[in-house]
Structures are given as structure tokens and as C-alpha cells.
Write a structure and sequence with these properties.
ATP-binding; P-loop_NTPase; mainly alpha; membrane; 0% strand; 74% helix; elongated
Length: 109
């Protein structure tokens, strides 16, 4: 399913906090087990939000911990989009007969 870029960014940021990821481990180490949901062990985003939005220093800490992972995830999303754009461009060139490969294969017929 295709999501708008802002939604994909949100998904990247959410995925960084999934249980077992490096981001999850760093956040749990910094903020303690109290931010975890009792039943699943996932980060309780509401509880974490209450902590970080009430204390600017903790919000900065969270940003420092997760920024590298979020940046990397966004980078990969951009690469995926560029790959898709390239595929679309090449397929349009191929079907329009403007591809250099079309000229080569025509000579082989």
C-alpha cells in the first residue's frame, strides 16, 4: 500500500520503537521498564509521550537516541522511492521505443 511521505515518516519513527530493535533497547535503557506495556513489552507511546513532553531535557534525550535510526529509515524510504521512480521511467522509455536497448534489439531482428 502506498502512503504519503509524511505517513511513511511516521511509520519509520514508529518502527524504530518496536520491541527488540536497537531504538527500543536504547529508549528502555534510558527511560526504564516503566514505559513498557505490561502485557506485550512494547513501548507505551502514550506514557513515553507524557514523560518527554513534560520535560524538555528528556525530549532532547529521546531525540538524540532515536534520530540516527529514524534518519536511516527515512534514507531507505527515499532510496525505495527513487528505485520505483527509476523503474517507472525506464519502463516508459522502453514502451515508447526511446530506450537505447530498443535500438540495439531492433538491429538484431
Amino acid at each position: 500500500m502506498a502512503y504519503p511521505p509524511s505517513t511513511r515518516t511516521y511509520i519509520v519513527a514508529r518502527d524504530v520503537l518496536k520491541k527488540g530493535t536497537d531504538g527500543w533497547e536504547k529508549v528502555v535503557a534510558a527511560f526504564g521498564q516503566d514505559i513498557l506495556q505490561a502485557d506485550l513489552g512494547e513501548v507505551d507511546r502514550t506514557r513515553l509521550g507524557q514523560i518527554v513532553f513534560s520535560d524538555p531535557a528528556k525530549r532532547q534525550l529521546l531525540n538524540r537516541l532515536l534520530a540516527p535510526y529514524i534518519s536511516c529509515g527515512i534514507f531507505w524510504e527515499i532510496l525505495k522511492l527513487l528505485f520505483l521512480i527509476t523503474l517507472c521511467y525506464l519502463s516508459l522509455r522502453w514502451t515508447s521505443g526511446r530506450s537505447p536497448l530498443n535500438r540495439i534489439t531492433r538491429g538484431l531482428e
